[in-house]
Amino acid sequence: MGNMTIKDIAKKCGVGVSTVSRAMNNHPDINPETKEKILKTIAQSNYVPNNSARNLKRTDTKAIAVLVKGIGNTFFSDLVSGLERECQHMNYSCILQHVEEQEDELDIALHITKEKKLRGLVFLGGNFSHPKEKMEQLEVPYVLSTIRTSDMEDKKYAAVSVDDFKESYKMTEYLIHLGHKKIAILTAPKEDKSIGKLRLLGYQKALRDYGIPYSEKLVSYMDAEEDRYSFRSGYKLTRQLLMDTEFTALYATSDTMAIGACRALKEAGISVPGQCSVAGFDGMDTGEFYIPSITTIRQPVEQIAKATADLLFDMINGKEKPRQLIFEGELVERESTIPPADKEKQSSNGTMKREK
């Protein structure tokens, strides 16, 4: 089988990309039977991590690493596949490194850069707010992909993403135009300085511009320790909101969380979109095939993956200085969002009564 990616192996074994990565890296945190199954599949498929794993033993290795934080967000697996493909074209090995929520991605980056003699790095996900002095310890070029920080402008980072503030504003504005005034949001932990903060700020600004009071009760923040932007976090945060908050629309800042939210609403006897509209962010395939299909902001994954790789390889080859590339997201209207069920009731008391 030619050119199998880590995603193909994961699909074949019915596991996540991070589990395959653990098996390949001999990580202790994996079920032995699962590990055996994965390694057997890899052997049968003649899968070699991108080019040749033997390259990694040589000192002139041409390898980059992709550090993924928030593996529960399946949006990243599409990005990783795109990056792997671009690496193959350039005859580079691509090492996938899963970073746990409580781990510091920069410490891990500094360690594996030396250990594997890497030429470059891509950071995916995480609350990227590291001191400048520490960032300067990285001796290889790196690109932040689908990561933006609110203080990015004055730092010379190479970054590729959508404008999270603007796209989040766009989604909130769309829900307001449908007639919703009580819009709940599921977002990153409070201390997040990255896309979570920007998406929350976009939501707040849209409410302000349309004269809708902002209420902290309608904001559900992820726990800093949990897997971010995952199905489980969406489910958990929505259950917390339902305890004492009324809303007619729920905006989850990732599609995985939107699907988790739909499950929590269904269990509470609330129909989507009949009694509550749900919107996501990312544009994953899963959201398109979920019932109801999820209204979302689609990120141009393939363009982002290609631009990330091109920028990194140009920096490795000394042709390019760090710069920031911003792509346009697309609002995709699907089945999960409609005008509020009872507009009269909503306008009189700002909320809607639902069966509990």
TrEMBL record:
The record's annotation in InterPro entries points to: HTH_LacI, LacI/GalR-like_sensor, Lambda_DNA-bd_dom_sf, Peripla_BP_I
Which PROSITE patterns does this entry report, sorted A to Z? HTH_LACI_2
Q: Which residue intervals define the domain HTH lacI-type in the entry? A: 4-58
Reading the lineage from the top rank, the first entry is Bacteria
| Classification via Pfam families | LacI, Peripla_BP_3
Keywords, alphabetical: DNA-binding, Transcription, Transcription regulation
Q: Which SMART domains match?
A: HTH_LACI
Region annotation Disordered: residue ranges? 331-356
Protein name as catalogued = LacI family transcriptional regulator
